[in-house]
């Protein structure tokens, strides 16, 4: 019997029955050979559906419901869970022992809840690889949420109210590959924020209030490939900030407050750079950027914001005379 036949069997003969193939009211359950997926999307659900959850569940999704709390005893009914998706509910916090006994859980998604605080050690009890806390109300992130030996590869803290980089927590995440910190209120990054993220490949810092970067901000991140810095308030970049990032392929610097870039700031071998939406001031001081733009194809077409006579002109198309350089002979 293939898994589809098994599923049909399960649905036809076991609707509502207890035991291996049971499924809570208002949820759908997909049973296959190796996985059992439960999805509970009912907006009127306000209690955890502990009654008839199949003990074999490997993936549980309760989304866009009125659920306001989940407890460790609730989850004990499904010890084989690998993924727990709880987006769009009304959770305000989680108990510290929530994940105790979930020795297979690698993914927890808490997007779009009302979480303001979490207790110490809250994510210690499961071998998490992916942790999503996007679009909550977090103002503080504590280092002890995760263990020192954490294997986390994906952390999403975007859309919260963080004013400071979660440096203490990040120092524990030496295997992190993707970090989302977009859409917070970050104003500055301590120089060592990302120093332990040796495996980091994608870093999302867009939509914050960053005014500057330390020249060594990314010096520990030799694998950094995609870097998102758009929609911040940076008016300068340290010339060495991208040095040593041999894999850097994509940098988005659009919609900041850059007027000039020092010579050598942009790496020669980079695949794509977005520089649009900055108030570039087109005079002789912009010559390094003008020359860089004219020798790279992987880039946006940034325009002058000033002086008045050049406003709106595409920088790369300016003549050297327009830029105020003495004409070449
Ligand atoms: C279960 O999966 C294994 C390997 O994927 C396959 O060999 C076997 O036939 C499957 N059994 C059923 C009942 O589908
Ligand atoms: C959700 O809960 C709130 C308050 O607990 C209640 O007023 C509301 O009617 C509930 N919504 C649904 C769809 O059950
Ligand atoms: C969890 O939420 C339910 C429904 O709102 C409530 O009856 C119950 O008391 C809550 N339990 C805890 C531990 O907060
Ligand atoms: C949370 O962060 C704010 C500033 O972002 C700080 O003033 C406050 O002391 C922090 N609270 C805790 C418990 O760390
Ligand atoms: C960097 O990326 C390469 C290729 O994906 C990988 O083999 C290597 O282990 C990574 N380095 C670290 C420190 O994760």
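^ structure tokens above, recovered residues below v
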């Amino acid at each position: 019997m293939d898994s589809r036949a098994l599923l049909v069997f399960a649905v036809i003969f076991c609707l509502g029955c207890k035991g291996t193939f049971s499924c809570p009211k208002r949820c759908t359950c997909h049973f296959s050979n190796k996985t059992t997926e439960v999805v509970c999307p009912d907006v009127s659900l306000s209690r955890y559906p502990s009654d008839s959850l199949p003990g074999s569940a490997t993936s549980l999704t309760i989304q866009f419901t009125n659920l306001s709390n989940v407890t460790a005893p609730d989850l004990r009914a499904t010890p084989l869970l690998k993924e727990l998706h709880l987006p769009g509910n009304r959770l305000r916090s989680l108990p510290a022992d929530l994940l105790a006994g979930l020795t297979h859980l690698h993914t927890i998604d808490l997007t779009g809840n009302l979480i303001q605080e979490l207790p110490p050690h809250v994510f210690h009890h499961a071998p998490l690889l992916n942790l999503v806390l996007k679009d909550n109300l977090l103002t503080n992130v504590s280092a002890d949420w995760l263990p020192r030996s954490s294997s986390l590869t994906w952390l999403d803290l975007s859309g919260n109210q963080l004013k400071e980089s979660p440096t203490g927590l990040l120092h524990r995440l030496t295997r992190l590959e993707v970090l989302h910190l977009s859409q917070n209120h970050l104003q500055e990054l301590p120089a060592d924020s990302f120093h332990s993220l040796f495996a980091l490949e994608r870093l999302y810092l867009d939509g914050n209030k960053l005014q500057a970067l330390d020249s060594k901000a990314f010096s520990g991140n030799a694998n950094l490939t995609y870097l998102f810095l758009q929609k911040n308030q940076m008016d300068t970049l340290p010339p060495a900030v991208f040095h040593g990032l041999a894999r850097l392929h994509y940098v988005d610097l659009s919609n900041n407050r850059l007027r000039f870039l020092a010579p050598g700031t942009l790496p020669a071998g980079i695949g794509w750079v977005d520089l649009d939406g900055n108030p570039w001031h087109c005079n002789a001081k912009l010559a390094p950027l003008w020359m860089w733009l004219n020798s790279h194809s992987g880039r946006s077409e940034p325009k002058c914001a000033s002086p008045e006579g050049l406003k709106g002109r595409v920088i790369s198309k300016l003549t050297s005379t327009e830029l105020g350089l003495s004409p070449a002979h």
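The longest strand covers residues 36-40.
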